[in-house]
Amino acid sequence: MLLAVDIGNSNIKFGIFDGDTLLSKFQIPTSKADQLHAIIGDRLDTSITDAIVCSVVPSVEGPISDFISKATGLVPEFVRNDRDLGLTIDYEPVGSLGTDRLVNAAAAAMKYDVPFIVCSFGTAVTMDVVTTNWEFIGGLIAPGIDTLSKALHLNTAELPDVAVEVPASTIQKSTAGSINAGVGFGYIDMVEGLLRRIKGEAGYAMRVIGTGGSVSLVAAHTKVLHVCYEDLLLDGLRLISERRQPA
């Protein structure tokens, strides 16, 4: 069985695969990476025979690696952005490109038809383009919906920190409702507008693949996503692991 780990800015996601089946998944806040043993306990055991990790938070890679090694007896592989994932990379410098963006793009290329835009909705929104020639030509980064809401709270004296839910209307009669309307509808409009710009610049039709923790919220309020797969990155790690296995 395979352990796939996605170390993100807000959460660390764990997925356990038996072949191509995701048997279980769970997550912990990235801020609690120093409490792995207390939080996870014995969820990992010696039935895991391989471990692969994607990380955008270098400071917690050591604790994650140590935890996996102690729990399973394995030394996990960390996927780096100079790894050959089957895509030609047109991005400068390649070392600055988040590995999560590459893994999502490679996974989408292996699972779906090119060309496409792969959109990850998390702490940040990333939108990246892969062409018909399996070429990653870059994309954009914008704030995620929770990041937008927290920015209002942190940069004002009295606005509360709210978990945003997109309301039924833009005109609201409470402060929390007003934040929900402004951030929620603003976020959806941002997503739609950015995708429209990307498609206009590319000049040809592309499938739009959505993933990440907020993909369900986006899908519920717009029709711009053709595919929604929250666990694309974990599945991408599985596919990358299979590519490196001997025939």
- Uncertain runs are none
Distance between the termini: 17 Å
Write the CATH homologous superfamily of the largest domain: ATPase, nucleotide binding domain
Query: How many discrete domains?
Result: 2
CATH fold annotation of the largest domain? Nucleotidyltransferase, domain 5
Derived structural class: alpha/beta
| Count of distinct strands | 11
Q: Which CATH top level class of the largest domain fits?
A: Alpha Beta
Estimate what percentage of residues fall within beta strands: 25-35%
Name the strands of the widest sheet in spatial order.
Answer: 6-9-8-7-10-11
Roughly how many Å is the radius of gyration?
19 Å
Q: Average pLDDT across residues? A: 94
> Major sheet: size, sense and barrel closure?
6 strands, mixed
- The CATH architecture of the largest domain would be 2-Layer Sandwich
Helix content: 25-40%
- N-to-C SSE series? EEEHEHEEHEEEHHEHEH
- Which shape, going by the Cα principal axes? globular
- Continuous helix count: 7
